[in-house]
Design goal:
Layout (H helix, E strand, L loop, with lengths): L1 E10 L2 E7 L1 H6 L5 E5 L7 E9 L4 E7 L3 H7 L6 E2 L1 E6 L10 E7 L3 H13 L3 E8 L8 H7 L2 E6 L6 E2 L2 H10 L6 E5 L2 H11 L6 E4 L15 E4 L2 E4 H4 L2 E3 L5 H8 L3 H19 L1
Parallel strand pairs: 8-9, 8-12, 9-10, 10-11, 12-13
Antiparallel strand pairs: 1-2, 1-6, 2-5, 3-4, 3-7, 4-5, 13-16, 14-15
């Protein structure tokens, strides 16, 4: 069993859990992910490893409450256990050999962007980070990013914190001010990553995106996470999650990712109702 040893509410809908998983912690690298089940009857969901501690034998995940399983996950307390935790899965992000990079994170995707930015920083690169949120009450990990960034831009859609506007606007300004990046790394909502790639393409800047489509088994067998990259079918769980963002068929990827939205909303409401009944 995988016991929760720390729980922290970063924001009302964003939670951090540190879980005992010594075998995963021993081999985890930035950019990799795990798949978990909250209980024996639960669905399997992928979450990127935000942090790992090899000495303590723990991995840390950050998630946003968006559906039934994350609602259940959010009700775990210190001492509770997950039914399953499998990993590390996927290929680690390549962070060596870069002199200057830009890391772009959107929303809870910043929990993935941070360990990658830190790895670039630890490998000696100059790191410029642009992180975006809908509003001030959703901003997370700002101090963490500041510690590993030579330049940090915090953006909010509504202007309640940092600069008002989109991450693509801040990225374009940095590029046009003369910054020549060896690589731009982006992680967040698919629509955000799509437009980051459109922003960098005219400048010929290599752009890597971390894909998190619908995923079930994490071994490439189910085919749920397939995406089209350069006209070829790839599986995010085993071929990725990192891909050349300029080669992805974004329209197809976005369409596939929305296939179960109505069903997920329905299951989330059912789960919330169950918890409300338990409280009564």
């Amino acid at each position: 069993m995988f016991r929760v040893i720390r729980r922290e509410e970063l924001r009302p809908t964003v939670t951090l859990l540190e879980v005992e998983a010594p075998m995963i912690a021993r081999k985890a690298k930035p950019g990799q992910f795990i798949i978990l089940r909250v209980d024996e009857n639960g669905e399997r969901i992928p979450l990127t490893i935000y942090h790992y501690d090899r000495e303590k034998g723990t991995v840390t995940i950050i998630f946003q409450i968006v559906g039934a399983t994350t609602e259940k996950l959010n009700h775990l307390r210190v001492g509770d256990c997950l039914a399953d935790l499998v990993g590390p899965l996927g290929k680690a992000t390549v962070t060596e050999g870069k002199k200057k990079v830009a890391v772009v994170g959107g929303g809870v995707g910043c929990a993935i962007a941070y360990p990658v930015a830190k790895a670039f920083h630890d490998n000696g690169a100059e790191v410029h980070c642009i992180v975006g949120f809908r509003s001030q009450d959703l901003v997370i990990l700002e101090d963490d990013f500041r510690a590993v960034s030579d330049v940090l831009e915090v953006c909010t859609d509504d202007g309640t914190y940092g600069r008002k506007g989109l991450v693509t606007e801040a990225l374009k300004e940095l590029i046009e001010s003369g910054n020549q990046y060896d690589e731009v790394f982006a992680i967040g909502p698919m629509i955000m990553m799509k437009f980051v790639c459109r922003t960098t393409e005219p400048y010929g800047l290599p752009t890597t995106v971390s894909m998190s489509p619908i995923m079930i088994d994490g071994t490439g067998m189910c085919g749920g996470c397939r995406i089209s990259v350069g006209g070829e079918t790839k599986f995010a769980c085993v071929d990725g999650p990192d891909f050349d963002g300029h080669k992805i068929d974004w329209d197809l990827a976005v369409k596939r990712n929305q296939m179960y939205r109505d069903f997920e909303m329905h299951k989330h409401e059912e789960t919330c109702n169950l918890f409300r009944q338990e409280v009564k």
